[in-house]
Request: fold
Amino acid sequence: MCGIIGYVGNKEAKQVLLKGLKRLQYRGYDSCGIAVRNDGITIHKNVGTVEELERTSPKLKGRAGIGHTRWATHGGVSQLNAHPHLDCTGTVAVVHNGVITNYAELKEHLTKEGHVFRSDTDSEVISHLIEKHYRGNFEEAVSRAVRDLSGSFAIVVMHRDHPKLIGARRECPLILGKNERAGNFIASDVLAFLEHTDRAVYLEDGDIAVATDTGVTITNSDGPVERSEVRIEWGAEESKKAGYEHFMLKEIHEQPKVIDRTLSGRIKAVEPGVELELKHYDNLSGITLIACGTSYHAALVGEQVISELTGIPARAVIASEFKGADALRPESLLIGISQSGETADTLRALKTSHEAGARILAITNVPGSTISRYADQTLYTYAGPEVAVAATKTFTTQLVALYLLAIAYSKAPAYAAARLKDDLRALSGKVESILESEPQIMEQAGYLSHFHNAFLIARGINYPAVLEGALKLKEVAYVHAEAFPAGELKHGPFALLSAVTPVIAIVPEDDTREPMLTSIKEVKARGAPVLALATENDEAIEQLVDTVIRVPAAQAMLSPLLNVTALQLLAYYIARERGCPIDMPVNLAKSVTVP
Ligand code: M6R
Reply:
């Protein structure tokens, strides 16, 4: 959840670290800090943004350093609790992501041995432990210290007497960035070093990596190990705002391009089928999709599309609620969906299933991320870097990947898969036309921004779309938004309807239209204002509701993607009207790497 960067090379470390931290701010951002190695180790940290850290930072000369943006877990938000943490002799500095579960007992022992602690964090024990084990061999001290730790961690450590950095991980991502000429990096996220190198090496649990200005080496308990290098094909430019006011808006606008990129080369010109370079599984008796947050909403759409096209029963499960591999049917397939590929809850569910021998397919946006390690095969979405905490383009590309997968495994009559395939080709154009309605959506957002609560209703395959719309409203606009299958309103939520509870209703041109109209009439009868998302052809809807946002007509399976695009824009503009910190909502972090 926090962000880590370490650099050792021929440039001034301070500038490299600050730039890297700015790229990482989306991961966690209540406080931040850097440590630079010079005659000793100099630390500068503060509560607040990296920009403030930069403004207040003293002159720091040195070509090796570590930096961190923090999302507090143990210990409140304060300068003392911000990383890096030094041991009490001032020789070892550490930055840490994760949770050290035995920190209290380690701290007690170390305190008895004379170590003096300055912070309330679990992380500080690591620098003291390394100092305790240090007998002149830095690598040895780090590997002995990590053996003492319980819990999860990605750490980067620096020693006053050694011109190198050491990284180690257990259940938290840590990546080497290699550039023999400019210097080498150890970071929690490739965005931290993408401006300097696109050559990444993902460390595995138990690895200890040493980076110097000329190279990197990796060892684990068996001795030296080789880990393969991955080219990150994201341009550094892709992670910049490119003139947009917020990353979220930029990323919403990138959707037509990235939808086509995810489809590209995968739809065969010759019928039937798609080209996914995936092995087929025979005799599948069931498919379980596992994910969290927005990815779970994609899984809910996937559940319906896969069941319909393949005839194989599919079900989506929230990763933290997954009961373990025993719950899987024999001959079943597990699909793990995670944009980051690093979400702890999802990884934990997949890891236990992998160990129990389950067949696993991963869908992720980040090449080389941990999720692939637990999967037999990985289907990449090509959304590119997503910086805003709110997932937008990564959701729509996950849906595209799921549509492709359903077509690939389809057992439905060929025309059904062929029709979906044809309509996928036209999808980006439809998303484009929603983006053209931005001024109308902005106007609706102006009106809705005055309400503190909202209900969102839909039926069938659009129910996940309203769940996703409600999540966007909560996380970026701080509106208490609740999504319901429309038929459920009368079973309780009606009690909350009034003139100050706007209801956003999805009214597509499918067999859910008529029952949706009935639900809307019931809502109107209770005095709540209704905004409908309806197709361009639906003139009759105007008579029933207060306002309408138009979305292009599409077959039912594709309509959640279009409706969510409209809801993303609506949430964005409501948040903007309300003056919310859109890209970095309070209390949230982009990648949730703690369980
Ligand atoms: O990286 P993942 O897709 O595994 O992340 C899962 C959720 O944490 C994520 O979708 C979260 O809900 C987003 N902030 C929603 O916008």
In short: Residues 292-295, 338-340, 343, 346, 389-391, 471, 475, 591-592 surround 5-amino-5-deoxy-1-O-phosphono-D-mannitol (CB under 6 Å).
